């Protein structure tokens, strides 16, 4: 048996009484790369935000287990400490906070959480250098305010840099590819692929199939109308690309709910 | 006008009358100055909230206090009591006033370089009466703090006079510490006169502190004359007792090609009014008014700027930021007056408030009076709460909710702090900020030596 990292069971969530997720089931094992595809408004980003601990959403039913623990009971910083990482669809600009200062705080907060010794300034600088090289990030960005004035591609690359830096066990990428030109997309994909090793798991949320040419998933889920309408291998992504989500327009009925990964 | 009785404070008036009767020493012109000021204060009374410039600040709590004179005699205080008000790493010449009285024992004005003289009014009159006479109380009284300036002048006694020679470059700041120790409600009227000669450079730190938690009034007036091509940097650090009232008025006159920086930091006091009034009379002056006010509980912190451009080709920058927690109330009024001939004026004003609770309040009022036709004046004001999206983002990277909020508050203050060039002062203020605000304490471990540094271009405030 492989080790289950993330298990989403019959998750229902709403915001301001508007149901968005209507019974999501999903299981991700250690070392697997899963992809969630789906049309706009299907609940993809909601799921990502809920995984990271966003409080605006009301969970009306179901549960999420992370390494067997109740994820919904954990604070966002606790989830980060436990190795969950979300690459934001819209990384937040924070005027006045330097990226370097924020990431120093972040790295050491996580190390403290994990019972590791904090890194000193020199060790941190070395780590930043190494990871920046790894994901081809211009180090000058680290000296600027968090995401402020970054281009779209820079923001996404900075997210991948943070992911590499924080060494998570479970990476959730929320439409990291959206709006990227092909070169930027390749850099993001290379960053992810370089991190695919051992037990690290990925949940790659995307609207477009092209990302999956570069990050080849083990399992593809199609989210429609708040439910996983279908799951399958990477060939499902190709099928979607050819035929579009309309394919699932009729299929998002209860019969399709409950589909889980292999 | 109306026949309504003007609000005043009988005790303050009584004290001023008594000071007049005591016929303090000094030349005739000085006595006349005091007498006229007393008459003016008697006539003006204290401003009420009906006064447009005091709309947001009620002086009722000041009106109602029964003030007494500060204790007579030489102030007694062990020297080490003052250490906690120093700035670590700053080996500055110091002038100390305790309960309004100059304390030679605690001061070391002899440490000043020979090109600058730091004198009490009495000594200054003996040394250079003409210069004192030409400048003391010589700045226009268009400021709404006029009543307080009048009262201060009526009480004029142990003023501090700083005379800087032409061409003198003074590296070390001069620290003027005003400490109030009294436990009964006293009123002190600190007075500072700075005359900076042609092409001179100096930094003056005015520092108002309370030794305990007494209720008292500090009514400070400072006049700064910035000579041709001179550069003066002025700090006003207000860290009074939590029950104190502080009215500080800074009048500045800038001659041609001069640079002036005013840094105001309000962190103490129950009710504080910070008036800053530079008048740019010569061409090509640069004036920076940088302020940070940090209030909690029921603190009321009011900043009133009036920048007068009287000559062409000058620029002025007002950058004020307020952080308001609990039921604190922050006020910023910024008036820019551009005279008819002051073409090519470039004036910027910005006021940003961060509200940390639903009960905190911020009021702002920009006012532009422009009589020239070729000028650039911009103003902007924002009031907001912490960006919860940013808090979530930081938390998702492992920072605790407290550390995330602290980091955002700190970064908001940082822009103001970074404009302050005297590092030891900046460090003490940063520390004071961290200790005072909610959340920021948890940030301390992350603030390394470079934790607070910003890129130079932001620090210099040179944007746009």
Shape of chain B: globular
Task: Output the number of helix runs of chain A.
Answer: 8
Biggest interface, CB < 8 A: A-B, 35 and 30 residues
Number of strands of chain A: 12
What percentage of the residues of chain A does DSSP assign to strands (E)?
25-35%
Distance between the termini of chain B: 44 Å
Summarize the biggest pleated sheet of chain A: 6 strands, mixed
Q: Note the beta-strand portion of chain B.
A: 25-35%
| Low-pLDDT residue intervals, each spanning 5 or more residues of chain A | 250-262
Structural class estimated from helices and strands of chain B: alpha/beta
Could you name the ranges of chain B where pLDDT drops below 50 across 5 or more consecutive residues? Answer: 448-464
Q: Please provide the count of β strands of chain B.
A: 20
Q: Strand order of the main beta sheet of chain B, please?
A: 2-1-5-8-10-12-14-16-18-20
Mean pLDDT score of chain A: 90
DSSP helix fraction of chain B:
10-25%
Order of helices and strands of chain B: HHHEEEHHEEEEEEEEEEEEEEEEEHHHH
3D structure, described in words:
With 262 residues, chain A is an alpha/beta fold. Chain A has helices at 44-52, 76-81, 99-113, 121-134, 152-166, 182-195, 211-214, 235-243, and strands at 4-15, 18-29, 33-37, 58-66, 69-70, 84-87, 94-98, 145-146, 170-174, 201-206, 219-224, 227-232. In chain A, the strands form 3 sheets. In chain A, strands 6-9-10-3-11-12 form a 6-stranded mixed β-sheet, sandwiched between helices. Chain A has a 4-stranded antiparallel β-sheet with strand order 2-1-4-5, with helices on one face. The longest helix of chain A is centred in the middle third of the chain and has 15 residues, at 99-113. The model of chain A is unreliable at 250-262 (pLDDT under 50). At the A-B interface, helix 2, strand 7 and helix 3 of A face helix 6 and helix 7 of B.
Describe how the helices and strands are arranged:
The complex is a heterodimer of chains A (about 260) and B (about 475).
Chain A: E1 4-15, E2 18-29, E3 33-37, H1 44-52, E4 58-66, E5 69-70, H2 76-81, E6 84-87, E7 94-98, H3 99-113, H4 121-134, E8 145-146, H5 152-166, E9 170-174, H6 182-195, E10 201-206, H7 211-214, E11 219-224, E12 227-232, H8 235-243
Parallel strand pairs in A: 3-10, 3-11, 6-9, 9-10
Antiparallel strand pairs in A: 1-2, 1-4, 4-5, 7-8, 11-12
Chain B: H1 10-21, H2 28-44, H3 60-63, E1 94-98, E2 101-102, E3 116-120, H4 121-135, H5 146-154, E4 160-164, E5 174-180, E6 187-188, E7 191-196, E8 201-210, E9 217-226, E10 231-239, E11 245-254, E12 259-266, E13 271-280, E14 286-295, E15 300-309, E16 315-324, E17 329-338, E18 346-355, E19 361-370, E20 376-385, H6 388-395, H7 401-418, H8 423-436, H9 456-459
Parallel strand pairs in B: 1-5, 4-7, 5-8, 6-9, 7-9, 8-10, 9-11, 10-12, 11-13, 12-14, 13-15, 14-16, 15-17, 16-18, 17-19, 18-20
Antiparallel strand pairs in B: 1-2, 3-4
